[in-house]
Amino acid sequence: MTVTAPDKAPVAAPPKAGATRLVDRVFKMRELAILVVFLVMIAVTQAGNSEFLSEQGIKDLLLNATILVLVATGQSLVVITRNVDLSVGSTLGISAFAAGTYLQGGGNPVVAVALAVLMGIGFGLLNGLLVSLGQVPALVVTLGTLYIIRGIDSIWVGSRQITAADLPGGFVDFGSGGVSAVPWLALIALAVVVATAYYLKQFGGGRELYALGSNPEAARLAGIPVRKRILAAYTFCGALAGLAGALYLARFGNVDSSTGNGYELTVVSAVVVGGVVFTGGSGSVYGAALGAMLLTSINSVLPALGVSSVWVMAINGILLILAIAVDRIVALRLATALKKRNARHG
Amino acid sequence: MTHPSDTGPAPVLALRDVSKSFGAVRALRDVSLELFPGEVHALAGENGAGKSTLIKTLAGVHRPDAGQVLLDGEPVVFHGPGDARDAGIAVIYQEPTLFPDLSIAENIFMGRQPRRALGRIDHKATHSVTADLMRRLGVDLDPDRPARGLSIADQQIVEIAKALSFDARVLIMDEPTAALTGSEVARLFGVVRALREEGAAVLFISHRLEEIFQICRRVTTLRDGAWISSELLDGMTEDDLVRRMVGRDLDELYPKQEVTPGEVALSVRRLTREGVFTDVSFEVRRGEIVGLAGLVGAGRTEVARAVFGVDRWDAGEVEVDGQALVNGAPSTAMAAGLALVPEDRRAQGLVMDMSIERNIGLTGLRTTVKAGLVDRGAERSRSLDWAVRLQVKYARIADAVGTLSGGNQQKVVLAKWLATGPKVLIVDEPTRGIDVGTKAEVHRLLSQLAADGVAVLMISSDLPEVLGMADRVLVMHEGRLTAEIPRAEATEETVMAAATGRAAA
């Protein structure tokens, strides 16, 4: 077998290096592409409306993105494992209300946030158990829990409402405060994204999420604790939805039984626009976070350019389809590049 | 069984009286096996003999219902594939089990990456160790390249590198050569021999008998889930081995009737589907069984699908009884008298939750529908008729097809298509995963059909089946028809040579 090695290696080495660099670049490019689109959009808007990037403008952009970034980060972990969590909107709503009710009674803000996160963990565990043990498609299971959690929320909340006036002043100030143009909430989201990305890249548990999304059967045969990992992904996703609920409360101060309604679709869009492949195994939380930034910024960009906000939905849809089309084209290009490399090899 | 008291070392890994059932199917019955260090052990048996179940038991995927797995003579229980791996057992499955999105290095170390401080993965070490492994195996694969797009041979190299990376003491290989070319097989055998020299125990599974004799020292034979023999290969002939695998003489298994071919029933001319198969031309005459051989992925199934109209073709033409078929239209193909029994009966041939009667009835809806409604009575009598003719073993004809054994399911698929009264029957792997008894029945049926004037095109990876049943053998290699061999000249050697592209074109 070693006989073939010497005469093969020198011939094949240069094209290999080239192809790999190309592959690397393409993967990095995916995140880069969204960043470029985002920056171009911001630049164009700034050119059209010089007020757009004022200190307050930047702050608003970041504040608006924060909550979606958090939930999208959690969601991307689940999507990487070839699953989905549709119940994040409901979880966000109910944990926001729970935190609000607790604060209304004069509670400690830190405990309130912990309460929301715990609540999210609870629902995440429920989803994770149903999906990993039930062997039922995640889409259906979490559609079920979406309605269940929303139902519980409606019964519990009724027509009640929490307003900023009911909350401790410090909590509300925290929700809108920050260091000059950078809000506290954005810093929290940034910390979460960076930590999650680091975990996914540097720890076995993180890589195993990619592995089981890439080929579930092979993951099982490689001795990866598949159920445990899926459970962990859902729990983390739930926890972030809960945290997002608490931050939602701090940011808007206004929560009722419909809070977070339909949010799951925005979250999934952000994740997909950000290049996390819906069939699992590929993508990054940086991409998902950028996708979230892109989608939320459109909300600010259109009014700043004097375009009616009725266009937001349609534009989000176009971005989503564009993202999928780009992914498909990139995948095909990649396949051809790798095939060429194989051919040169053989 | 022969107890190898003559060889010094004790078995590294052994099975003792292991049984395993799936529902009503007894996949393994009191099977024993001993693997010795520094020795390549062959596992022989027909499709469905229980080889895969045995491997998965050794790999910790299945837990035996009865009997024991012994590691170094001590009973062990593997709670999952991870346990078996930690015990030093590496398995290379028939279908490589890689993660397409991850790099080769990550594939090799998934689940047990080298760590540095704080439990973080040592990416540098994974890369350099992988590069070393690739060098050791004599291949030039970049550790950072994603596994997506690797050739089957390279995928297997990655699997072997995985086994090397944790110094596996036992290497189990399930038909590793099925999709390899001659030189790739030689490379693989080089690696296997090197591992053997280093004292690893290897369990080798192959349908190519000459490979078993070439590289193995000992062989264990299974038939219908039961242990038949374990013995040294030294002094055995291929015929001996086949007799143990099949349990009867080959003539009985392949009851081919002599027929004089009639006029051309199926004519395929210069059929091409870009990137899949190229310039495929052949004819099948009435009364003839034509075998279509080749390696997995050679494009045989794809040709059948295109002929039947499931996939479109880019160039060429197909005629049934001189009547040209429309590109990409299965319904016209059926109307012209073409029937296709697909390779994967579970996914493509049957609706598993539906009854036997309705499954057979599906192809006859045209004739049994009256005023837009299915005439259930007509459907039932038609289905019963065919089920009886093919001797399908079932409790009630209203039972779901999923409750039948693999062989009987295959008969239902055949019944479903024979009920259409085809002039041309294309069968794709008609006996894959079927027990020997039913296999002979399927062969007899095909032979009978041909004698009745049906033109049969039989795609099969089972060489003895092709040689035993076909009047002519067509061989495909990498999307092209590379040989047409008459029955008299068809041997394992001539067919394999053409299938692996070794034949002088």
Automatic annotation (TrEMBL), chain A:
Keywords: Cell inner membrane, Cell membrane, Membrane, Transmembrane, Transmembrane helix, Transport. Its main location: membrane. The chain crosses the membrane at residues 32-49, 61-80, 110-133, 181-200, 230-250, 262-278, 311-331. CDD domains: TM_PBP1_transp_AraH_like. InterPro entries: ABC_transp_permease. Part of the ABC transporter complex LsrABCD involved in autoinducer 2 (AI-2) import. Probably responsible for the translocation of the substrate across the membrane. The complex is composed of two ATP-binding proteins (LsrA), two transmembrane proteins (LsrC and LsrD) and a solute-binding protein (LsrB). This is Autoinducer 2 import system permease protein LsrC. It comes from Streptomyces griseoviridis. The lineage of its organism: Bacteria, Bacillati, Actinomycetota, Actinomycetes, Kitasatosporales.
UniProtKB/TrEMBL annotation, chain B:
It is found in: Cell membrane. PROSITE patterns: ABC_TRANSPORTER_1 (PS00211), ABC_TRANSPORTER_2 (PS50893). It holds the Pfam family ABC_tran. Residues 13-249, 259-503 form the ABC transporter domain. It is a peripheral membrane protein. The keyword Translocase applies. Keywords: ATP-binding, Cell membrane, Membrane, Nucleotide-binding, Repeat, Sugar transport, Translocase, Transport. GO terms for molecular function: ATP binding; ATP hydrolysis activity. The keyword Ribosomal protein does not apply. GO terms for cellular component: plasma membrane. Coiled coil: none annotated. Its main location: membrane. InterPro entries: AAA+_ATPase, ABC_carbohydrate_import_ATPase, ABC_transporter-like_ATP-bd, ABC_transporter-like_CS, P-loop_NTPase. It comes from the Bacteria. PANTHER family: CARBOHYDRATE TRANSPORT ATP-BINDING PROTEIN MG119-RELATED (PTHR43790), D-ALLOSE IMPORT ATP-BINDING PROTEIN ALSA-RELATED (PTHR43790:SF3). This is Ribose import ATP-binding protein RbsA 1. It comes from Streptomyces griseoviridis. The gene is rbsA1.
